[in-house]
Write a structure and sequence with these properties.
With 410 residues, this protein is mostly helical. It has 2 domains: 194 residues, Up-down Bundle (Growth Hormone, Chain: A), CATH 1.20.1250.20; 192 residues, MFS general substrate transporter like domains (Growth Hormone, Chain: A, Up-down Bundle), CATH 1.20.1250. Helix content is 82%, strand content 0%. The chain has 18 helices and no strands. Helix 1 runs antiparallel to helix 9. The two termini are 27 Å apart. The relative contact order is 0.14.
Length: 410
């Protein structure tokens, strides 16, 4: 198996990594800082201001399959280049919104840009280029993306202190135009066979989207990773209140939450070193199990602060590695010929879950009489996802053994 990277493509991971930092930072993380001043000036309610952001995530998820199919056919240059240009235009428009209608229209456009520029299309591009070495390439790319919040949360806060929120959006529009667009416009032209694998052999091992979507296993594994993503998304917005509801002070809750970002990067580093010899399925089983285990730790006494540090480590590592698993699993299960479409189809419900997660947690909060009931329900949902993933892994292992036995008998 050829694990070398073509010298002419050595620039791809760091360059795409830079665009991921800018794209995630400007379209995903910056809004968390700018949301409150925008709400105050526009005179909107909290649900209205958050809802616009959820619309973008929903649209991004619904377009994932189409974006992946385009990359399968013609490569990523046109799609990701157009996405970067659209992001620049939409962020510039966001600096000029004055009411809810304009806000929602602009965020809908940003959702389209997200579908063409964030991890999913980038994974499809590097899977084409890096061939059998795709998982290592995906891991390295996510190491860059993991720093988006680390860079853009403090950067956005600093910019906001010196200029208004409208000017911040203009600066981020310029960043997408001047940094992301030139890099995306330089991506390999056309699809071509994945490096390191002859075209004929790639096609015989791969299946197209229509064939894959006839298999129950596809829906089971997609459901497992969707449940996992739903809980992560719910906790991302509600984590600090959940910690405080269990008796943790606001300062300590913020400190525990701040550990999660570095732990995500640590998880990806561990996967790239210790876990590189394991299959994506094995890594995924370990990572998806960390979420319910971490949530169980939140039922500890508020006096056991070290337990909450362990929670942050397990939670962050699991989330960091699951990003890689969701990117690499479609190629491991179904081959690389139709990777873009298949990974996009798997990503669609995941993105919908990410958009719905905070709202689902709010419903659980009302139905469960507070955050303790919410946490218990989220723990159960995440455990169900882990159990379902384990069932799929066992089924695939048994299926592989049966095929091996049939081959031996013939």
């Amino acid at each position: 198996m050829d694990n070398t990277i073509p010298r002419s493509r050595g620039w791809l991971i760091p360059s795409l990594g830079l665009t991921q930092i800018v794209a995630w930072g400007s379209m995903f993380y910056a809004y968390g800082v700018l949301m409150q001043p925008m709400q105050d000036e526009l005179g909107l309610s909290k649900p209205a201001i958050v809802g616009a952001y959820s619309v973008a995530l929903l649209i991004s998820g619904l377009l994932s399959t189409a974006a992946g199919s385009i990359i399968d056919r013609i490569g990523g240059r046109l799609l990701m280049g157009s996405g970067a240009l659209l992001a620049a235009v939409m962020l510039a428009c966001l600096s000029r919104v004055h009411n809810a209608t304009e806000l929602y229209l602009v965020w809908a456009g940003i959702g389209v840009a997200m579908s063409a520029t964030l991890y999913q299309p980038a994974f499809a591009v590097i899977t084409q280029v890096h061939g059998s070495n795709y998982r290592r390439a995906i891991t390295h790319l996510t190491l860059f993306g993991g720093f988006a919040s680390t860079v853009f949360w403090p950067l956005t806060q600093t910019l906001l202190q010196h200029v208004g929120w409208r000017e911040v959006w203009l600066i981020y529009a310029a960043a997408n135009l001047l940094i992301c667009l030139p890099i995306h416009a330089s991506l390999p032209k056309g699809r071509g066979p994945a490096h390191g694998t002859p075209p004929a052999r790639t096609e015989t091992r791969s299946r197209n989207l229509t064939a894959v979507m006839r298999e129950p296993v596809f829906y089971l594994v997609t459901a497992a990773v969707t449940l996992n993503a739903l809980v992560f998304a719910a906790m991302s917005l509600h984590m600090i209140p959940v910690l405080q509801a269990h008796g943790i002070s606001a300062a300590n809750a913020a400190w525990v939450g701040a550990l999660i970002g570095p732990m995500q990067v640590l998880g990806r580093v561990v996967q790239a070193t210790v876990g590189k010899r394991a299959s994506t399925r094995q890594v995924g089983m370990a990572a998806i199990s960390l979420l319910p285990l971490s949530l169980l730790l939140l039922f500890a006494s508020e006096q056991w602060l070290p337990v909450y540090v362990v929670f942050a480590a397990l939670y962050g590592i699991g989330n960091g590695v699951m990003t890689i698993v969701r990117g690499a699993l479609p190629a491991e299960l179904y081959g690389r010929a139709a990777y873009g479409a298949i990974s996009g189809a798997m990503a669609t419900p995941v993105q919908i879950a990410v958009a719905a997660g905070p709202f689902v947690a709010s419903l659980l909060y009302s139905a469960g009489n507070g955050y303790p009931g919410t946490l218990l329900a989220l723990t159960g949902i995440s455990a169900a996802g882990a159990i379902l993933f384990g069932y799929v892994i066992r089924h695939l292992r048994q299926q592989s053994m049966l095929l091996s036995n049939e081959g031996t008998s013939t």
